[in-house]
Amino acid sequence: MKTAYIKIDPAAPDEKALKEAAECIKHGGLVAFPTETVYGLGADTFNPDAVKKIYTAKGRPGDNPLISHIADMDSVLKLAQYVPEDAKNLMEEFWGGPLTIILKRRKEVPDIVSAGLDTVSVRMPSHSVANALIRIAGTPIAAPSANLSGSPSPTTFEHCKADMDGRVDMIIDGGDCSIGVESTVVDMTGDEPVILRPGAVTLEDIVRVCGKGMFGGEYADAPKCPGMKYTHYSPDAEVFAVNDMESFAADKKDGTAIIAYNNYAHIAKGNRFYSAGDTDTEYAARLFYLLRKADEEGIKTIYAQLPENKGMGTAIRNRLLKSAGGRII
Ligand code: AMP
Ligand code: MG
Predict the structure, then answer these.
(1) Ligand 1 centre from 199 Cα, in Å?
(2) Which of 4, 160, 191, 290 could form a disulfide with 170, with the two C-beta atoms 3.0–4.6 Å apart?
(3) In the chain, where does the domain assigned CATH 3.90.870.10 lie?
(4) Distances (CA, A) of 287 to 70, 152, 301
(5) Atom of ligand 1 at shortest distance to CA of 197?
(6) Which CATH architecture has domain 238-323?
(7) 18-22, 168-172, 222-226: least confidently modelled range
(8) Burial class (CB in 10 A: 0-12, 13-18, 19+), 135
């Protein structure tokens, strides 16, 4: 397949140019596009044949459901049977933004979108290009991250292109993603909000709005977020998650890189140093980018600092521990 490319300025999205991408979605095509979290690989939620192509393009297992993206609050009812009060409050507080809400699914939503579950996951992004695309297409857009299944999610146009060139109809270049890790996924179908995937909207944020909330999914005994059981975010290089950077010492070796906060730059001792910035927010924005850059630069071993398990740090730890596949030092 020949992939078409368009460049859209997020500061002033050219609606005429986006119309072409929206037409592509409406006609059952696949369009990769930027969001504030990571690049997404989109198809019309209500076109099961188009959605099927997403799974093929990514090599994604069929039992891993997709998030549908909308551009206005009311569209949630095209997908969900109803919206509980707490879910409504979360939408008002965090949409558009990096929060995906799981609700009871309307029967009109194709099985393939929800991988056969009776729920549907919905998000309204804040990214101007994503929102304009969804609005012009006039349909919710089902979109997982636009990477090959198992590799780190793309946070730049170049990384999206590296995985999706030749596999999708069109890729929109809208620059870098500001948040850098995927949305928080919160299940609102039970008595209490349950976070199935940590992201930039934190447990503290959710408890502030709903008065309650907890982590579940992979943190609980029975995973409810089906995708969680698969290998994730793995670069070719071997990743080690480092708990205590203070007492860490890596031998100088070709092909080794250290990812850590700037105040640990001295620990690299002649190895490549990839800065995680100064804050968790900066680290999140760079993590996937750095994992891919390491592969581009022929790095074989990555030692990456685990941030503290709070706020955005929880989301970074979640992704990093998966990349490390259990290798913690
Ligand atoms: P991705 O689209 O790559 O960001 O992955 C979406 C994540 O949301 C996966 O981990 C899915 O398992 C999860 N997800 C999507 N829809 C549902 C749902 N209906 N129930 C539980 N988890 C879901
Ligand atoms: Mg993904």
Answers:
(1) 13
(2) 4
(3) 4-215
(4) 27, 9, 15
(5) 10
(6) 3-Layer(aba) Sandwich (3.40)
(7) 222-226
(8) middle
Instruction: Give pLDDT tens digits for 61-105.
Output: 888 899 999 999 999 999 999 999 999 999 999 999 999 999 999
Determine the Cα–Cα distance for residues 306 and 61; give it in Å rounded to an integer.
29
Where does the chain hold its CATH 3.40.50.11030 domain(s)?
238-323
Question: What is the percent of the chain with per-residue pLDDT over 90, rounded to a whole number?
Answer: 87
**Interatomic CA distance for residues 216 and 158, integer angstroms:** 34
**183 within 8 A of 100, measured Cβ to Cβ:** yes
Per-residue tokens: 247: 């007492």
Burial of 248 (0-12, 13-18, 19+ CB in 10 A): middle
Q: Which of 118, 197, 233 to mutate to test the pocket of ligand 1 (most atoms within 8 A of CB)?
A: 197
Atom in ligand 1 nearest the alpha carbon of residue 115: 19
pLDDT digits (tens, 9 = 90+) for 99-152: 999 999 999 999 999 999 999 999 999 999 999 999 999 999 999 999 999 899
**Whether the predicted pLDDT of 196 surpasses 50:** yes
Pick the CATH number of 4-215 from 3.40.50.2300, 3.40.50.300, 1.10.10.10, 3.90.870.10: 3.90.870.10
